[in-house]
Amino acid sequence: MKIIKKSKVDIDKGVFENIVRVYIDYVKKSLPDLNFKELSELFRHSLCISLGLDSKGFNTYIDTNAIEFSKVLTPLLKEQNVLSKSNDYKSGFLEACIHYMEFSIERAEYGK
Length: 112
What we know:
Blueprint: E1 2-4, E2 10-12, H1 13-30, H2 36-51, H3 60-79, H4 87-110
Antiparallel strand pairs: 1-2
């Protein structure tokens, strides 16, 4: 299934769903005490680092852990050929991942 973003770039839903699943598994094992806001911010910042997009975490804890998690993400993104894509594609991919992550968090938080 493809999703067309505002930038008119096709993003493969299976790829970003997989990235979010890997992230959720990682934080369950490594950082189980993060609140939902920290989960979202860590994911966004880690993904930006891996994609080579400008980003800044909102505290040093997020910055440090984002660098570590980006080491997990980068090979996955490379395997899916995301890193070789244009910046428009990367931005659309980031947006799709963040929306899916927020949807997952909302479901977990509110039991939807």
